[in-house]
Structures are given as C-alpha cells and as structure tokens.
Amino acid sequence: IRVSEAEMKRQGENLTHRVQLTDGDYLGTMSVWHSLHCLERLRKVIHMDYYHDKIPDYKPDTGIWTKDHSDHCIERLRDDIMCHPNIAVYIPEWDETHTLPDGFRMISKGQTTCINWDALDQWARKRALKGGAYTLKPNPFGDEHGVHIHH
C-alpha cells in the first residue's frame, strides 16, 4: 500500500533506507498481510508435493522457499499470536467418532473480538499500488542486495 511521509513519521519510522516510491511516498504492507503471506508459504512448503507443479519458476531451497524464510514465517506468526492473543478458553470435548488423535476436539463458546474485514480490505484497496503504475527509487546498496519487487 501507499504510505505517506507524514504517516511514516506518526508511526515513528526511521526513513533511512526505507523503500520509497519515486513520487515521494513509501511502499508498505499491513502486518496482517505479511502474516497471511507467511501462512500461505508454510502451507505450500508443507504440501509441496501438491504445489510444486503449480508454482511458476519454482526452485527448491531458493528465495521464499528456503528454510530461513520458513523460520522467519514461523517467528512472524509466533510474534503475532503472542502480541494479539485470542484469550477465549477452549474446553476439550470427547469425539464420539474416534477419528481425532487425542480422542477429543477443542471447542470454545468464548467471546472473541474481530475487526470488520471488509472495511479493512476496502480501505487498503483504495491505497493499493497497482502493478506497473509506480516506480521505486533505486536501492542505495545496489541491485545485488535485498528483494526484487515485481511491480
């Protein structure tokens, strides 16, 4: 998403070496999207026997398919869960079908608070950067460093 310099400063960001658009705004993403990206990558890594033919230019142990990236994703999700825990209490219930590993399932009637996902998505879509409709300022460290963003 597009993030203005004023928004960056309000959030307390250090602007040094941040990825910037040529029009002066900054490239951003919401933490929730980063976490969903990580969840998707882990699912694909776990089920690579199914996904490997469906991923264009898939190269094992490179880029986002490395163990380091999976470890990063696990840490990202752990951090999210610990920082924003759902504290509803789950109570085990015996499973009469006997198909679950422990013989019971975890259920909860506890209250949880959810955001209005549609409202968040609409807000973000208004700020979304469309592929090919923006350019980035050059990487000050050269092309051999960092991630190449396809836009």
TrEMBL record:
GO terms for biological process: mycotoxin biosynthetic process. Belongs to the ustYa family. This is Tat pathway signal sequence. It comes from Karstenula rhodostoma CBS 690.94. The lineage of its organism: Eukaryota, Fungi, Dikarya, Ascomycota, Pezizomycotina.
